[in-house]
Design brief:
alpha+beta, Glutaredoxin, four-stranded mixed sheet, single chain, 239 residues
Length: 239
Amino acid sequence: MRKMHKTMIEIQKAERRNSAKQTDRVVVTYYTDPLCCWSWAFQEQWERFCNEYGDRVDISYVMGGMIADWKKFSDPVSDISSPAQMGPIWMHAAAVTHTEMNYHIWHKDPPASSYPACIAVRNAFLQSRQAGELYLKAIRRAVMVEQRNIARPDVLAAVADELSERNADVFNADDFREAGSDVAARRAFRDDLQKAAYHKIGRFPTVTFVTGAGRGLIITGFRPFEMLKACMAELSDNA
């Protein structure tokens, strides 16, 4: 009986230790949009962060819905209100960050909205986080480098097929096409829009870091990996 009692105490202590560890984990939320050129430039830094800190943090993604349509879109900070004005922004981002980016799509076949791509990404995330990350990167490359209009359903489907062929063990194009998955993806995207609005996130990329104790940091825009690392160090030092 005494042995059983001791065992139960040990179990309770272990549970408390596990609970404390969960509280200490940092929740990292990445607010982005498939049509955001600065997010594409940030891709390498973000992937490095995920590789180095992925097992120590809880990562989630929020699709920001940057462009509902061009009748409603306006970016007074960058002075953009039409597709033609987006090209120079991409040109500048490419030059500043040394990232491959083809801005001619904004003159040849400008995407009418980023919403279809956001929903498609949410659809991919229904399979797994890895599937979602791979698909998000694939459609970014499709529009940023290959000049493919990711506002078009046929392009989004074609990228899914290509990704499935390359990564059949992670991403399934048939699951992506299921009718029910689109309904769930739209619901998830609506939740993303509400979350971004609630936290007043309107610039991309934005990354937030929040500890279980409620301490938080936020960075916005293209940033080097060292800044992500510094955020983690600061939260760890203040633990």
